[in-house]
């Protein structure tokens, strides 16, 4: 199998001198210490990043087989005290958030002090509705500042928030509300997307008859739809304007191990899990990874494009930046509205320094050509990041050259909802960059590749296996809400004594890690194990290809065959000539064993609402098993799926 040997220097202008971690030697020494003496290492970080009301009794206690993990047990703190109160005297006038609306003419900014005032008001309002420590609130809102305010108001009271991404259907919403037993739902009348008004409250109305535990609904008037509210429903602006509400609410002292939030995974592989994160460990890990991975300086503007409804938004749009007193950007819109140049226009407008997005976004804008980027002055950018899926080297290079102008490092951050923050990533100024590799572990992270056949650690470079983590880190999830058994079964029983990630991976001669796809997606062709990411990268390297998804399907001779769904760039004709070229490319890039058996053109690929390709659905289409598609509630645009099924049926008819 061919290996990418392409390496980009770590020595990009500006980082060597000023980076928080100065060079590879310092990284290695610190990483070593973080594993050898985690108690001392993390106690130091905990003092540095957070303000505690009461110190811990122990730093770490754990028992993986029981799924028990405790960091800083006995310590007391509050998330919003750390995000807001402690900043007011020093940086109260600093911008906490810029907000840019879907409509380019709508924007605003909030200082730390303003955010603090609004969070206190909102906390007072929730308290007046009877909410208290340990209660659950589901937040189902568009990307507006009130979303962050609602979450922080919950955290101030010790109320556990569970954000459900605004794109989910009534059914998905009801499932999540009931799963966590929420007493209140906070929503908006609607949301704006690509210039259109999308109703949101409708879904809440449809969900609530099936959610007996919900007592109150709070509705933000985002779109002026003029809705009439029902009993136990109130307008956000009316509630907040109540003159009897106090301006200040005491932040609830929380044990480090008390839950901060529940968040459902994106569900690319099955029924979403209600992952629980804590007040202490999660916040520390969020704070440190934000600072170090992005090498964020106090005067920089950080734009994480993820929706707050995903873990990436929780950690890198809300908790991480605020704890560090940084300036973040919340963007309500999409990369394609009013035009495919929107992102770069926003970067220029706010002089964004560090930019963090997903491969799916990069591919979707790259598809429209580099001229869309070249129009703008992107000289404020200093670093780029990616998360969510393996990034194809082709997309990586496009991002590096056209967005970063070959002077910004790209941090390819591998992590999961369950890990709370970055687990593996290159650090700027420290790591050389290899397109498609997430480089090396963050501090405190001890990854290992396990051979699925023997259960033993991989013994040599490039041996593919399952990625596991040997030791706890502060940001790791503590349980699956209401189902600790599932937590143990999913993460701690596959490989005894380790955290099981479910991702296939390998490391190379330089100790760089490569994620090769979900373990369930590794295709076994005549005894050869092939990662879907590798084949997809080879396909996407073709100049006419925008995106590709590869899955296995039952093959009478080879065991599994290779089925590729390919999306071409805008304006390119779907010819057999291109199919032939694609086959040739895969054969020469990876080898004849990886030759696709079937290539199906796809105008678009089915994705989760967070933009991940839904391979389990493509597997069904490839297998011709199209009667029962399983749980389709996580899919963003069902018509994409219908189209693919129709064409699949037509091809065999
Ligand atoms: P579910 O667990 O319900 O199937 P999910 O795994 O898609 O959903 P997330 O927690 O949002 O939910 O995604 C984490 C997964 O995303 C990782 O396990 C990995 O497969 C993939 N991933 C994230 N970042 C990267 C990256 N930088 N490179 C490669 N893969 C990544
Ligand atoms: Mg997962």
From TrEMBL:
Biological-process GO terms, alphabetical: acetyl-CoA biosynthetic process from acetate
Record's keyword terms, sorted: Acetylation, ATP-binding, Ligase, Magnesium, Metal-binding, Nucleotide-binding
Swiss-Prot/TrEMBL cofactor(s): Mg(2+)
Acetyl-coenzyme A synthetase N-terminal domain mapped to chain residues: 27-83
The keyword Repressor is annotated on this UniProt entry: no
PTM entry text: Acetylated. Deacetylation by the SIR2-homolog deacetylase activates the enzyme.
Residues that bind CoA: 312, 526, 587
Binding, Mg(2+): 540, 542, 545
Domain named AMP-dependent synthetase/ligase: residues: 89-473
Keyword Repeat (UniProt): no
Catalytic activity line of the entry: acetate + ATP + CoA = acetyl-CoA + AMP + diphosphate
Listed name of the protein: Acetyl-coenzyme A synthetase
Source species: Dethiosulfatarculus sandiegensis
